[in-house]
Every structure is written in C-alpha cells, then in structure tokens.
Predict the 3D structure of the following.
Amino acid sequence: MTSFNWTTGYPTVRMPIFGRNVVATSHALAAQAGIRMIWQGGNAVDAAIATAAAKTITEPCSNGLGSDAFCILWDGQQLHGLNASGGAPAAWTRRYFEQKYGTKAERPPCRGWDSVTVPGAVAAWVALSERFGRLPFADLLEPAIEIAERGYLAPIVVQQKWAAAARIDEITRQPGFAETFLPYGRAPHVGERVTLPGIARALRAIGQTKGRAFYEGEIAEAVERHAAAHGGAMTLRDMAAYRPEWVTPTAQNYRGHTLHEIPPNGQGIAAQIALGILQNFDLAGLAPDGPEAQHLQIEAMKLAFADTYRYVADPLTMEVTAEAMLDPAYLAGRAQLIDRQRAQVFGAGNPVRGGTIYLTTADESGMMVSFIQSNFMGFGSGVVVPEWGLSLQNRGYGFSLDPTSPNVVAPGKRPFHTIIPGFLTKDGAPMMSFGVMGGNMQPQGHVQTLVRMLDHSQNPQAACDAPRWRFNAGLEINAESTMPSATLQSLMDYGHRVEVIEDSYQDFGAGQFIWRMGDPATEGYVAASDPRRDGQAVVW
C-alpha cells in the first residue's frame, strides 16, 4: 500500500477516486467516452483514443484534429514512447520566411498558415490503435462523433477561453475560423448548445479509413487547397510523408523513483534536469509550503530552463545529447550554483564533456497511458479548413530564423515543443501516469507535484490542490493567491519578483494523475484531477 497522507489540507472541490479502470481528463463527456470503450471490451489505449477524439469536440479552444501529440504508455510489460509532433513543410527555409517577412524577423509568425507544421495527433491515434488497441479503430471515434452532432452545453472554463480567443483579431481574421467557431458571430455562452458537424464528418472519414483520408485522401487534399488559397506552403505531399516516431523515454531517478519523459524535441527534459538538481537537497526536511522548499524548486527550474532553451531541438540538430544534459555529475555542479537565500538569473551551462489537453487512462490488466495533444496557443494558428472543422496548430512558431540556433527552421524538421506527458516508475514497475497542461508550466507542474508526492507524501489530489508558482523569466514568478502570505513575503525577501494571481486556471496549469495502488485487478488505482480546469476522473 502506498504511504500517502490522505488528508489534502488544501481547499478543494475534489477527492481522490479509486477504481480498477480509470480515465481522467478535463471534461466529463470525454472521460465518459473513454470508459465507454472499457465497457465494450477495450483497453486503456482504446479509452485514451476515444477520450482524445472527444476532447477535440469538448475543448476546441485547446486542441483539435490539427494538433500534435505525445504519449508514454506501459503495455503491461514495458514502457513505450510516441512522438507525434509534425515537421515543417518542404518549402520552409530561412529564405522562405525572409522573403515574406523581411530579414529582421526572428521567428515564423505565431498565427496563419506560416505557423502550421504537419499535424500529428490523428497519426498518433492510428499508431496506438494498430499496435496496442483491441477495438476497431472506427468504434473509438463514435462517442466523439455523437457529441459533435448532438451537441453539448459550453462549460465555464472552456467558454472563458473560447471568448478570450474571439476577442483576438489575429485569430478571428484567419480563414475559416469565424465560420466554424463563431457560429453566432461570437463565442458560445456558458450553457449554450455547441455542435461541430464539420469535425464529426472528418472523424467519420478518419475512422472509416484508419486515418488515410486525413493524410492521403480528401481531407489532405482540402488542406492543400486551403493553404494554396491563403498563402500557405503545406501540400498533400507534406501530409502524406508524415509518420509518428516510436521513441525510448528518457529517465531521471529521484527519491527511489524514476521520472520518464519523451526525449527532445520536447521540453520534458526540463523537469528531469530540475529533479536531478533537487536530488542534491533535503527537501523532505523542509515544510512543503515554506519558502525554503519553494525557493529551491524555483531556482532548480530556472537552471533547467536555461539549458533546455539553449540546447533542446530536433535531436538530429542538437549540439549535445539528452544523456549529457542529465549527467548526475553535471547536475550536481549546477546545484552548487543555487544560493539558498537569494534569487538569481542563470545562463545555460555546458553539459558537453571533452492552448493543451491532457488525459490519462489505466485498466485492470495493468496498461497505463499518459497522453497529451495540443494546438499550442489556444486555437493555434487560427486557420480552419471549414468543411472539415479542421483547426490547425501553430507549432511552427517554435522555430528560430537565427542560423546559429539549434531550432533554426528547415524542411521536414520538428520544432521545439512544449507538451509533455509524464510517467513514473519504481524499480522498473509502473507507478503513475500523469501530466500538467500550460506551455512552460508543464515541466514546472511535473516538478512541483512530484516533490509534494515523493518528498512530502502528499496524495495526488493534495498535490493537485496545493498552491503553485510559475517561473516566467529573469527573477519574475507568478504565485497563486492561496500560497501562504509568509512564504510569498520570504520569496520576495530572497529577491524574487512575485506577482500574485487570483485567476489560476490557466497560469498554473491543470493536470490529471493516476497512481497504481497495487495489483490493478484487485487494488486498482487512485485518480486525481485538477480543479483549475474542471478536471474529471471516471472509474469503473
């Protein structure tokens, strides 16, 4: 039995949920879609795909059919990683952007067709289903199709994000956006019925063809036509050439457990670097909400981001390896840079020697899935292929136009990515599938929640509910208003520039956690969901 303190100690609207089959995500209908697959004889992978498809309907302001995705899963015997981030169109070179935007442009635009890389989420669903699923692929998309056609009532948090996007001209003027996502000339109101028939039509075609319609058929052809009509470079050939990549997750030991992340081009390594640095401090001897523990985590995160932003890119162009960045001796040296009484600004070291949704599922056979998909900045590029309801991500914004950068744009290259699923093992056995949403908050959320669980024995729901901070840049951090006032004052005394934020649903992420309690068939799992984003856990 896991030795957690089951008293949360924090204001909360949620309690841990126990069950042998679990789906946790940020919308009840999507979680129910996943459990429905379990009822029909499917496994955790089938549940994850159904949930992910439903999320494109219930939270279109964060993800869609044009998203990218990553996954870490335990198949009952071993861990697998899937990188389903797409590459740049073949036409994308530095010269392409310089000719369109001038030589002073530092990166591609953040909206429009010139921010869109090949979407990978649909390919992720197909790859997972083919390798690990039980049920027919088309069956997995039926719940999402039903929700899209029958409609659902706009929930509070989703409506807030939708309405915020509708106030941004840079989004609403993109081709196809208003036609698809502003059906009344505005965002839907809370409790107003939302239908998305174009996405339903696309899901049906994707299901019937196991994704071929999306990458090689009529949807891909529509993407090419839409891009050509609106100044984009994406072609049918770019879409057809795409394949997701099975990868070996990177590993970082911490307090007798091992944190696994998808290797670069993602930022999961930032969480692993921070924990490798914190391994050199006795956090268990400090108050979990006290200033000393928070300060050490903030400084470790700064050091981690300094290296991540300097070195992480498509692995084919990285100057250093992930293994070098996680070398224990190197991280111990980085830990020595931390002043326990003073906030600092850190540069990158030298490790060379010589808008997102998250879901997690688990079933009684022992399979556990950690899955994340995202448009990046809310509705992403803002571009929508209207007849298919296809909203496209803007991951191209992660490229640089600096020729010396490891993230310099190039044809087929994958950009720096922010979305990261997490997975925890102990002595080679699975312990927890989990994730936190929200740009660069994701590795920060991984670190803060794991420290609470592994150093302070807080249960997963308490770790969700506890107040968080978010490092931005330099000495600037945001902190939730529920953080103790004495801690906030001490952090400011250390030199941190603290801004206290009242509305925390977006600034501090939101996540879902499934912790294995023992034999899944008898003891099952405990699930926690984050109240910051209307998190839901459904068990059976």
Notes: The first strand starts at residue 17 and ends at 19. The mean pLDDT is 93. The first helix runs from residue 28 to 39. Residues 144 and 242 are 24 Å apart (CA to CA).
